[in-house]
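Q: Protein A?
A:
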Amino acid sequence: MEVRGILPRARAACEVEIAPLSKDSYDEHGAYDAHAACSRARVVAVRCSDMARSTRGQATVEMAIAFPVVIIVAVIAINATLFFSDCATFDRAFRQSVRTFACSPAFGQGLSQSSAQIEQALDAALDQSYLSIRVAVSSAGLGHVKFTGTLDCAPHLFGRGLRSEVFGVSLPHIRHTTSLVVDVYKPGVLF
């Protein structure tokens, strides 16, 4: 009966045959011959170590191929997390700015001036070189005004700008838009 197993050091690179004691392991008087059994085991070990040597650099090659991919995935995940954080800050700051500057404008202040003040407040709240902010104003009907804020995020590496193209593939800007409809107070109007 033969038992086949895998030598753990060879990492599945060789098969070891373990056979029960045979007639070769005993001498002519029936005594166990340890030298014959050990020499057979040595031959199997040498054959396995030669096979293990042929796969010695495999882990290094696998890491050299997989490491850049892991780094790219990590950078994308970090960029996405930073973008989501900037979006949350933008939404909160946009709504607060619209409530502050657009709902009760100063006497003689028009919608374009309110829009410019909102944009300045947002630029102060999100002072990052890779972000660009725009605020647009439109009529929503029935005397209501819709303010729309747009946040454009350029691809970056921890706040440092990247090229707009890598290996011929363009890196698009990510855009987030939010809007708020308000009833602008008109000084001197009584209805």
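Q: Protein B?
A:
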Amino acid sequence: MDNIDLPQRRAQAKELLTLLNSESLFTFQLPVRPPENATDEQLQEMNAFYEQVKQQVDKQLDEVLTYVASQFTAEELQEMIALVQTPVGQNLMNKLPVAINKAFAYITHPIMEQASSALWQRYMQIFNSPPQTKKDDKPHGFTVLDGGKNNDDNNGDDNPDDS
């Protein structure tokens, strides 16, 4: 995409992100109030630091807007803005993230637990012993994580249950 309409697309990207309930990205405030007994010098120092941080945040947000704008045409951004402003778009934006998170949590955890358990059991049946791995071993089509069971070489570093 050319950069001729980049300023327009950046403005559209900001509008879209604001409509997607991301307006807090563009409102940077101190998370706490200074104490009531703060001196003028302390307040000035804090305000100066706040301005430095705000400039850094503004620069990063500018990069975000440029990135989002670079991914879509002006027409695509305008259509997304129009969609998000409809009742269907609002419903989509309110419910889709929650639905996706729940679906992934519901599906991926049990699936990965079952797959890991099945692989572990089958490995034990085939080889009659737990896997003996070293840190530099290359996978052979699958990776067996044993959680440090019966494997003194890995010191438990590969234990997925330690998180």
